[in-house]
Specification:
mainly alpha; two-stranded antiparallel sheet
Length: about 220
Protein backbone atom coordinates (compact mmCIF):
# COMPACT_ATOMS: atom_id res chain seq x y z
CA UNK A 1 0.00 0.00 0.00
CA UNK A 2 1.24 3.48 -0.84
CA UNK A 3 1.08 5.97 2.00
CA UNK A 4 1.21 9.74 1.75
CA UNK A 5 4.94 10.46 1.31
CA UNK A 6 4.82 13.84 3.05
CA UNK A 7 3.34 12.33 6.21
CA UNK A 8 5.85 9.46 6.13
CA UNK A 9 8.73 11.91 5.74
CA UNK A 10 7.42 14.15 8.51
CA UNK A 11 7.06 11.24 10.96
CA UNK A 12 10.57 9.98 10.22
CA UNK A 13 12.02 13.45 10.67
CA UNK A 14 10.19 13.94 13.95
CA UNK A 15 11.31 10.56 15.23
CA UNK A 16 14.93 11.35 14.41
CA UNK A 17 14.64 14.46 16.60
CA UNK A 18 12.85 12.94 19.61
CA UNK A 19 13.98 9.31 19.41
CA UNK A 20 16.14 9.51 22.55
CA UNK A 21 13.27 11.03 24.53
CA UNK A 22 10.85 8.37 23.27
CA UNK A 23 13.26 5.58 24.19
CA UNK A 24 13.71 7.09 27.65
CA UNK A 25 9.96 7.39 28.15
CA UNK A 26 9.44 3.81 27.01
CA UNK A 27 12.10 2.58 29.44
CA UNK A 28 10.33 4.44 32.25
CA UNK A 29 7.11 2.65 31.37
CA UNK A 30 8.92 -0.70 31.37
CA UNK A 31 10.33 -0.06 34.86
CA UNK A 32 6.85 -0.68 36.31
CA UNK A 33 6.74 -4.21 34.93
CA UNK A 34 10.39 -5.03 35.54
CA UNK A 35 10.29 -3.80 39.14
CA UNK A 36 6.97 -5.56 39.86
CA UNK A 37 5.58 -2.26 41.16
CA UNK A 38 1.94 -3.12 41.81
CA UNK A 39 1.04 0.32 43.13
CA UNK A 40 2.36 2.19 40.08
CA UNK A 41 0.65 -0.33 37.80
CA UNK A 42 -2.71 0.28 39.47
CA UNK A 43 -2.11 4.03 39.22
CA UNK A 44 -1.75 3.61 35.47
CA UNK A 45 -4.86 1.47 35.13
CA UNK A 46 -6.99 3.95 37.06
CA UNK A 47 -5.49 6.82 35.03
CA UNK A 48 -6.53 5.14 31.79
CA UNK A 49 -10.09 4.70 33.09
CA UNK A 50 -10.27 8.49 33.46
CA UNK A 51 -8.87 9.38 30.03
CA UNK A 52 -11.76 8.94 27.55
CA UNK A 53 -12.73 12.36 26.15
CA UNK A 54 -10.58 14.06 28.81
CA UNK A 55 -7.14 15.67 28.76
CA UNK A 56 -4.45 13.26 29.86
CA UNK A 57 -2.70 15.87 32.01
CA UNK A 58 -5.92 16.60 33.91
CA UNK A 59 -6.51 12.89 34.49
CA UNK A 60 -2.97 12.28 35.72
CA UNK A 61 -3.26 15.30 37.99
CA UNK A 62 -6.33 13.70 39.60
CA UNK A 63 -4.46 10.43 40.08
CA UNK A 64 -1.53 12.22 41.71
CA UNK A 65 -3.86 14.16 44.00
CA UNK A 66 -5.56 10.97 45.15
CA UNK A 67 -2.27 9.11 45.56
CA UNK A 68 -0.87 11.85 47.82
CA UNK A 69 -3.81 11.58 50.22
CA UNK A 70 -4.36 7.80 49.87
CA UNK A 71 -7.82 8.45 48.41
CA UNK A 72 -6.73 6.50 45.36
CA UNK A 73 -6.61 3.22 47.28
CA UNK A 74 -8.92 3.85 50.24
CA UNK A 75 -11.22 6.75 49.37
CA UNK A 76 -14.99 6.44 49.20
CA UNK A 77 -17.12 7.54 46.28
CA UNK A 78 -17.51 11.15 47.46
CA UNK A 79 -13.76 11.53 48.01
CA UNK A 80 -12.92 10.08 44.61
CA UNK A 81 -15.58 12.21 42.95
CA UNK A 82 -14.09 15.36 44.46
CA UNK A 83 -10.63 14.39 43.16
CA UNK A 84 -11.89 13.80 39.59
CA UNK A 85 -14.01 16.97 39.55
CA UNK A 86 -12.24 18.34 36.46
CA UNK A 87 -12.51 15.09 34.48
CA UNK A 88 -15.35 14.69 32.01
CA UNK A 89 -18.10 12.21 33.00
CA UNK A 90 -16.78 12.36 36.56
CA UNK A 91 -19.76 10.60 38.18
CA UNK A 92 -19.49 7.53 36.00
CA UNK A 93 -15.70 7.42 36.04
CA UNK A 94 -15.54 7.71 39.84
CA UNK A 95 -17.68 4.56 40.04
CA UNK A 96 -15.57 2.77 37.44
CA UNK A 97 -12.39 3.69 39.29
CA UNK A 98 -13.66 2.29 42.59
CA UNK A 99 -14.89 -0.91 40.93
CA UNK A 100 -11.56 -1.48 39.15
CA UNK A 101 -9.66 -0.78 42.35
CA UNK A 102 -11.75 -3.38 44.14
CA UNK A 103 -11.14 -5.93 41.39
CA UNK A 104 -7.37 -5.82 41.90
CA UNK A 105 -7.07 -5.15 45.64
CA UNK A 106 -7.69 -7.57 48.48
CA UNK A 107 -6.86 -6.93 52.13
CA UNK A 108 -4.87 -3.87 51.16
CA UNK A 109 -2.71 -5.87 48.75
CA UNK A 110 -2.68 -5.18 45.01
CA UNK A 111 -2.54 -8.10 42.58
CA UNK A 112 -2.85 -6.44 39.16
CA UNK A 113 0.58 -7.49 37.85
CA UNK A 114 -0.03 -10.95 39.28
CA UNK A 115 -3.24 -11.13 37.23
CA UNK A 116 -1.29 -10.12 34.11
CA UNK A 117 1.42 -12.73 34.67
CA UNK A 118 -1.16 -15.45 35.25
CA UNK A 119 -3.04 -14.50 32.07
CA UNK A 120 0.15 -14.51 30.00
CA UNK A 121 0.06 -12.98 26.53
CA UNK A 122 -0.51 -9.18 26.78
CA UNK A 123 -3.03 -9.38 23.94
CA UNK A 124 -5.08 -11.88 25.97
CA UNK A 125 -4.70 -9.63 29.01
CA UNK A 126 -6.11 -6.78 26.97
CA UNK A 127 -9.10 -8.85 25.89
CA UNK A 128 -9.85 -9.77 29.50
CA UNK A 129 -9.55 -6.18 30.71
CA UNK A 130 -11.93 -4.97 28.01
CA UNK A 131 -14.40 -7.71 28.90
CA UNK A 132 -14.21 -7.44 32.70
CA UNK A 133 -13.40 -3.82 33.63
CA UNK A 134 -16.01 -1.11 33.14
CA UNK A 135 -14.62 2.00 31.50
CA UNK A 136 -11.92 0.18 29.54
CA UNK A 137 -12.20 -0.25 25.79
CA UNK A 138 -9.39 -1.42 23.53
CA UNK A 139 -7.87 2.07 23.44
CA UNK A 140 -7.74 2.43 27.22
CA UNK A 141 -6.56 -1.15 27.83
CA UNK A 142 -3.83 -0.72 25.21
CA UNK A 143 -2.84 2.58 26.79
CA UNK A 144 -2.53 0.92 30.20
CA UNK A 145 -0.44 -1.98 28.93
CA UNK A 146 1.84 0.38 27.00
CA UNK A 147 2.26 2.48 30.15
CA UNK A 148 3.61 -0.51 32.07
CA UNK A 149 5.92 -1.62 29.27
CA UNK A 150 3.81 -4.28 27.55
CA UNK A 151 2.62 -2.43 24.45
CA UNK A 152 4.93 -3.80 21.76
CA UNK A 153 2.13 -5.40 19.73
CA UNK A 154 -0.73 -2.97 20.24
CA UNK A 155 -1.76 0.59 19.42
CA UNK A 156 -3.52 3.47 21.16
CA UNK A 157 -6.01 4.73 18.60
CA UNK A 158 -7.07 8.07 20.02
CA UNK A 159 -8.38 10.96 17.93
CA UNK A 160 -4.91 12.48 17.37
CA UNK A 161 -3.50 9.25 16.01
CA UNK A 162 -6.55 8.47 13.89
CA UNK A 163 -6.32 11.90 12.24
CA UNK A 164 -2.68 11.35 11.33
CA UNK A 165 -3.47 7.85 10.05
CA UNK A 166 -6.15 9.38 7.86
CA UNK A 167 -3.77 12.04 6.50
CA UNK A 168 -1.19 9.33 5.84
CA UNK A 169 -3.86 7.36 3.91
CA UNK A 170 -3.47 4.40 6.26
CA UNK A 171 -7.22 4.61 6.76
CA UNK A 172 -9.76 6.25 4.47
CA UNK A 173 -11.31 8.43 7.16
CA UNK A 174 -11.53 8.82 10.92
CA UNK A 175 -14.34 6.53 12.08
CA UNK A 176 -17.38 8.28 13.54
CA UNK A 177 -17.72 5.34 15.95
CA UNK A 178 -15.33 2.57 16.87
CA UNK A 179 -16.39 -1.04 17.33
CA UNK A 180 -13.96 -3.54 18.82
CA UNK A 181 -13.67 -5.24 15.46
CA UNK A 182 -12.85 -2.00 13.66
CA UNK A 183 -10.31 -1.08 16.33
CA UNK A 184 -8.43 -4.32 15.78
CA UNK A 185 -8.56 -3.86 12.00
CA UNK A 186 -7.08 -0.37 12.20
CA UNK A 187 -4.50 -1.61 14.69
CA UNK A 188 -3.19 -4.10 12.14
CA UNK A 189 -3.08 -1.37 9.50
CA UNK A 190 -1.08 0.87 11.86
CA UNK A 191 1.33 -1.98 12.64
CA UNK A 192 1.99 -2.40 8.92
CA UNK A 193 2.42 1.36 8.58
CA UNK A 194 4.95 1.36 11.44
CA UNK A 195 7.00 -1.21 9.55
CA UNK A 196 6.95 1.00 6.46
CA UNK A 197 8.06 4.16 8.27
CA UNK A 198 10.60 2.08 10.26
CA UNK A 199 9.42 3.26 13.66
CA UNK A 200 8.53 0.67 16.34
CA UNK A 201 4.76 0.66 16.77
CA UNK A 202 5.20 1.15 20.52
CA UNK A 203 7.06 4.39 19.71
CA UNK A 204 4.89 5.56 16.83
CA UNK A 205 1.94 6.66 18.94
CA UNK A 206 4.29 8.83 21.05
CA UNK A 207 5.69 10.37 17.87
CA UNK A 208 2.20 11.10 16.61
CA UNK A 209 1.20 12.50 20.00
CA UNK A 210 4.22 14.78 19.89
CA UNK A 211 3.27 16.02 16.43
CA UNK A 212 -0.30 16.70 17.57
CA UNK A 213 0.40 18.20 21.01
CA UNK A 214 4.07 19.15 21.12
CA UNK A 215 4.65 16.94 24.17
CA UNK A 216 5.68 13.41 25.09
CA UNK A 217 3.49 12.51 28.02
CA UNK A 218 1.70 9.22 28.63
Amino acid sequence: MRYDPDVVRSLRETYSIIEDDVILRSSEFREIWDSDDEKRALNELLFCILTPQSRAQVCWGAIEEMACTDVLFKGNYEEVLEAVRFVRFKYKKARYLIEARGRFMEGGNIHLLEFIRETGDPLKVRDRLVKDIKGLGYKEASHFLRNIGLGERMTILDRHILRILSRAEVIERVPTSMTNRRYLEIEQEMIRFAETVEIPVSHLDLVMWYKATGTIFK
